[in-house]
Amino acid sequence: MPRMCWEPGRMSLISVENLSIGYGANTVLSHVSLSVNAGEIVTIVGPNGSGKTSLLRAIIGAVQPTKGQVIRNADVRIGYVPQKLHIDPTLPMTVARFLALPRGISSAAIQDALAHAGVPNLATAQMSRLSGGQFQRVLLARALIGKPHLLLLDEATQGLDQPGSAAFYRQIETVRQQTGCAVLMISHELHVVMSASDRVICLNGHVCCEGAPEVVASAPEYRALFGTGTMGALALYRHDHDHDHHHHDCDEHGQTEAAE
Ligand SMILES: Nc1ncnc2c1ncn2[C@@H]1O[C@H](COP(=O)(O)OP(=O)(O)OP(=O)(O)O)[C@@H](O)[C@H]1O
Question: Which parts pass through the membrane (predicted)?
Fold first, then answer.
């Protein structure tokens, strides 16, 4: 099992211990262990179908693990931005109304969340008229309403162009600075989130490797990502997944080094 790379003295908001998830006979995650500390930004990468969404859904309690557990202090508030959310485009609904659902939320709280999400002027806009980037900001605002200690983002920039996703991730960093919340996010855009992440976890049914972004950046696959654009990104997501290898281990400084 991989060892974790957090400083033992820091507070852990949630711990996933030896988690396995299956749908019928299909086991999608096996023996996954990880932890998220207060205030840190952790990015999960992995190929399609590698269990990333299932992991986040287990953390919020929407999926029951077949083995293992999610340990979460009862006081820890979690905000969740799903991968996608369908809203009937024929339904007239303002952003403020959407954010007030399902229970009444004060307009001051709505305005505060929209401001933190970087879209303070959208309260009266119609949901059906939002651009993709604005829609994501509104979903972010919805997750921020409960003033979470931990924000979970599931490919929150899907469908946005690169400047749009870069702006979204900058907003996430701003939210972290302003609120102190930790962030656990799934992204296919490691090159975009790299600088904002304290730690990167590569998932493919299990934790393949994890470490500081520099460790992942020093991998040949990551250099290929910078050098060859999309093809490099594909190379990155293919790495480690078709052969056995040792995990990256922590040294006493909390840094990782390849044990291969
Ligand atoms: N509710 C479900 N019932 C049955 N199978 C499911 C369910 N949810 C997910 N799966 C399957 O579990 C596997 C992992 O799915 P999951 O969405 O967790 O992966 P992912 O890494 O988030 O994928 P992607 O990058 O494509 O979003 C997939 O094979 C998927 O078809």
Answer: none
Atom of ligand 1 nearest to the CA of 50: 21
Residue 3 clears pLDDT 90, i.e. is over it: no
Q: Kindly list the domain boundaries of the chain, sorted by start residue.
A: 11-77+148-214, 84-147
The fraction of the chain above a pLDDT of 70, given in percent, is 78
Q: Is the CB of 46 under 6 A from ligand 1?
A: yes
**What do you get for the CA distance between the two ends of the chain, in Å?**
15
| CB of 79 shorter than 6 A to ligand 1 | no
Whole-structure pTM value: 0.81
Beta-carbon contacts of 184 under 8 Å, excluding residues fewer than 6 positions away, are 36, 42, 44, 56, 59, 150, 151, 152, 153
**What is the CA(238)–ligand 1 centre distance, in A?**
18
